[in-house]
Automatic annotation (TrEMBL):
InterPro entries: TTHA1013/TTHA0281-like. Residues 124-168 are annotated as: Disordered. This is Uncharacterized protein. It comes from Streptomyces tardus. Residues 124-152 have a biased composition (Basic and acidic residues).
């Protein structure tokens, strides 16, 4: 199914929609979030198909200044994501280190998070370290992990509370 490129140009209080691939197909809408539907309907009418059968990609035409502002937003968002990842790694490391000598409640109090979050941070760190280690081992490590999982699945289930089981 073809995807039509639609340009949206601000015209007063309206967005003027145009489909360059289909001369004579125009529409308009008050809000940009309504442009997809309006463009699909206009294309469907011209092509004599149902609007649900038409796919569009609306590209608003922005001024140079608006494009620069948008680029700054994207750059700031990328920096924010990097900072969040760095914070997450630091929190995981600090939680693991502090929890070695303190309770998870005390660790949480020091870090300013709940003890449940401390538990999550430690698990996330362990999982990340395991993935890194497995990635560096290559095929040999993944085969080893598969055999470990097979052994775990073959292990007997723990006995219900209050009962004991002897190895048979």
């Amino acid at each position: 199914m073809k995807t039509y490129e639609v340009t949206a140009r601000r015209s007063g209080d309206w967005w003027a929609l145009e489909v360059p691939e289909l001369p004579g197909v125009f529409s308009q809408t008050k809000r940009l979030d309504q442009a997809d539907e309006a463009a699909r309907e206009a294309i469907a009418l011209m092509a004599d198909v149902e609007p649900e059968e038409v796919h569009v990609r609306v590209a608003p035409l922005l001024s140079g200044e608006e494009k620069e502002a948008l680029a700054r937003v994207r750059e700031a968002r990328a920096e924010s994501e990097k900072a969040a990842a760095k914070e997450r790694e630091a929190m995981q490391s600090a939680a693991a280190m502090l929890a070695e000598g303190l309770s998870q409640r005390d660790t949480g109090r020091i870090l300013g998070v709940s003890f449940q979050r401390v538990s999550q941070l430690i698990k996330e760190r362990s999982k990340g370290e395991a993935l890194k280690a497995e990635g560096t081992k290559g095929d040999r490590g993944s085969r080893r992990a598969e055999s470990d999982r097979a052994e775990e699945s073959a292990a007997p289930e723990p006995a219900p509370r209050g009962e004991t089981r002897s190895a048979a």
